[in-house]
Structure formats: structure tokens, C-alpha cells
Design goal:
By secondary structure, this protein is α/β, with parallel strands linked by helices. The protein contains 14 helices and 14 strands.
Length: 351
């Protein structure tokens, strides 16, 4: 046995139990080791997905998340702990640090940013699979637009309360998200984490189903993917599969059939959004240059408890908590009023 062959076998040794499974085998594992994944969102679903894929040996994982870690995340977001909250770490960065300790062989790229129509193509164009770890339909429709246009498979997942659902989308072969759910529910009509809560068990099941679908695609086993919409309620003991394969031929989908991509083109979707269960609003303000936290802190005279690190600047004023990121984006906690949040942003950060 040559040294090169022995080295390759040793590299796969940590995945030996996974390779024993006939659906993957050694060839499938080698494909997984070459696979590239973009994960949009690293909260409840995203942390479970990332954990499974990194332990399974995916070659490259790009993690994109706009948010930072709070105490109430720890109930269900499995990669984070109390130290991460105390250090005021962004989710993408904290996740990457943990995952590198789990598997140093995986190339992990954390990106602290908001996924929108201006950047999604650059984030997903080199991926073999895109995974949905988000908490809102606006971003999911954006992912769907980009995935269909680029011909990239992606895996949708969503959870609320005790129930969740997931489906695998392969452009040109399966229905896309708009084939199944033509439009998002209007604001205020759908339950959120704040109004309905969320069980960690729900998250773990749905995210695990998403992760195994990704492994099937990466291992070259497209024949084994789920072609139904799976619905699970862990509290009421419900497991249902909805046969949706025929929808692609039956419905006049604006995305699949007519090639319309309004979210990707920026015609639909906003740049200021309320955040699920947070009593907070995210305000996006695109800048050509990165913010100087030192200069911003100096301008915030009379504002209490201003502190910053290289990831974010935080302060409180009049009962509102601001978290400002280097790209000019801010999360303002203490209101769900978008207009109020924009006013506060203009007052303390600028336009």
C-alpha cells in the first residue's frame, strides 16, 4: 500500500461508521468530502444542520447569518453556550469556532451579513447544495429565486411551536417553493416564535431531515431524496407526507414556468424587517465603506454603556438596545415598529 493511499484511507477513518451505511459507502463519503454547502441562517435549524454536516465531513461549509447570540437562543440553538453570549459573538462566528473544534478538516467560512438580493448569488453560486436555516419566508423566496435561476438544489425547512415541515427542491426536477406555497402570509397573520413559542425537539427533527437530504445530494444519491412535503408535529404525534411531485406540471408557477425572479431582482422584499420573537427591527443601510466603530462611539456622547469589538457595537438609549454591524446594518431591540426603528437609526447612527 502506497503512502498516498494509506493517507487517504486514514483521512476517511473518522467517517468509518457512516461509510458502513450502504447508501453512502466509501465513494459517497469521498463525494461528501468534496462537497460545498451554503447555509443561510445559523439559528435553531442552522446550528443543527451545521453540526450534522461538519461531523459528516462535508468539504466546505459557508455559514451566513446576520444576528448575534442572546440568552433565549440557548434553549434550541445547539452550537452556542453562555460564554458566546457573554462575548457578544455573532452567530456565524461563534458557530465556526465550535465547528472547527469538532472537525478541523472541514473548511468553514463564516459570514456576518444579511442575505438579500444584492449578495445572494455570490454566496450560493459555487455551492453544490443550499440549505435553509432562516426564520422568514422573504429570505426563503429569495433563496428559491436564486436556486432556480442557477440550477442549484436547496432544502427548505421551517418550524413553529411543536410542528415543522421540510421539502427538497431540485430545479428542473421537483416543484419549487412557489409551486407549493405561491406567496407568503401577510405580516401579522402567521404565528412567530414570540406568539407560539418553539420546542427544541421540533427543530432537531426538521433540521436533521434537512441535513440527511443534503448528504444524499452530496453523495450522488439523488435517487434517494425526499420528493414530498414532510409535516411533523412532535406534541400531537403527527407525521404526514404530502405528495407534491405532480405540482410542477400542474401549476403555472411564476418561477419554474415563467422564469420570473422578483425577489432576486429586488422587486419584492424589504431591507427593513421585524425579527421573529425578538421585539426588534433590523435596519439595513448599505455603505460603500465599513463603519468605524471608534468614530461612531466617539459621536455617541451622552449615550450610556457604549461598547464594541471588531464584530459589533452596542449601546442603550431610552429603553432601546442597538446592535450595529460593520456594514452599517443595525438591530434595534425594544420595538416592532419599522418606522420608529428607522427614525431611531437616523437619530443615533445616521443615514
Amino acid at each position: 500500500m502506497t503512502e498516498q493511499v494509506a493517507g487517504a484511507q486514514n483521512e476517511l477513518e473518522r467517517y468509518s461508521r457512516q461509510m458502513m451505511f450502504p447508501g453512502i459507502g466509501e465513494e459517497g463519503q469521498r463525494r461528501i468530502r468534496q462537497g460545498r454547502v451554503t447555509l443561510c441562517g445559523c439559528g435553531a435549524l442552522g446550528t443543527v444542520i451545521a453540526n450534522v454536516l461538519v461531523r459528516a465531513g462535508v468539504g466546505f461549509l459557508r455559514i451566513i447569518d446576520r444576528d448575534f447570540i442572546e440568552w433565549n437562543n440557548l434553549q434550541r440553538q445547539v452550537l452556542f453556550d453562555e460564554d458566546d453570549v457573554r462575548e457578544s459573538l455573532p452567530k456565524a462566528e461563534a458557530a465556526a469556532r465550535k465547528l472547527r473544534r469538532i472537525n478541523s478538516e472541514v473548511d468553514i467560512e463564516p459570514i456576518v451579513a444579511d442575505v438579500d438580493h444584492t449578495n445572494i448569488v455570490q454566496f450560493v453560486q459555487d455551492a453544490d447544495v443550499i440549505l435553509d436555516g432562516t426564520d422568514n419566508f422573504e429570505t426563503r423566496y429569495l433563496i428559491n429565486d436564486a436556486a432556480v435561476k442557477l440550477g442549484k438544489p436547496w432544502i427548505y425547512g421551517g418550524c413553529i411551536g411543536s410542528h415543522g415541515q421540510t421539502m427538497t427542491i431540485v430545479p428542473g426536477e421537483t416543484p419549487c417553493l412557489r409551486c407549493v406555497i405561491e406567496s407568503a402570509p401577510p405580516p401579522g397573520m402567521a404565528p412567530t416564535c414570540e406568539t407560539a413559542g418553539i420546542l427544541g425537539s421540533t427543530v432537531n427533527i426538521i433540521a436533521s431531515l434537512q441535513a440527511v437530504e443534503a448528504l444524499k445530494l452530496l453523495a450522488g444519491r439523488k435517487d434517494a431524496i425526499n420528493r414530498s412535503l414532510i409535516y411533523i408535529d412532535v406534541w400531537d404525534n403527527v407525521y404526514r407526507t404530502f405528495k407534491i411531485a405532480s405540482l410542477r406540471d400542474k401549476v403555472d408557477c411564476p418561477t419554474c414556468k415563467r422564469g420570473e425572479f422578483p425577489w432576486l431582482e429586488g422587486k419584492l422584499g424589504s431591507h427593513t424587517t421585524t425579527l421573529c420573537g425578538r421585539n426588534a427591527v433590523q435596519v439595513v443601510h448599505r455603505r460603500a465603506e465599513r463603519l468605524s466603530f471608534e468614530e461612531l462611539a466617539a459621536k455617541l456622547t451622552g449615550v450610556s454603556n457604549v461598547r464594541y469589538n471588531r464584530f459589533m457595537l452596542r449601546f442603550e438609549v431610552d429603553g432601546y438596545e442597538f446592535t450595529v454591524f460593520p456594514d452599517g446594518r443595525a438591530i434595534i431591540k425594544g420595538t416592532n415598529d419599522i418606522a420608529k426603528a428607522r427614525t431611531l437609526y437616523a437619530q443615533y447612527i445616521g443615514t
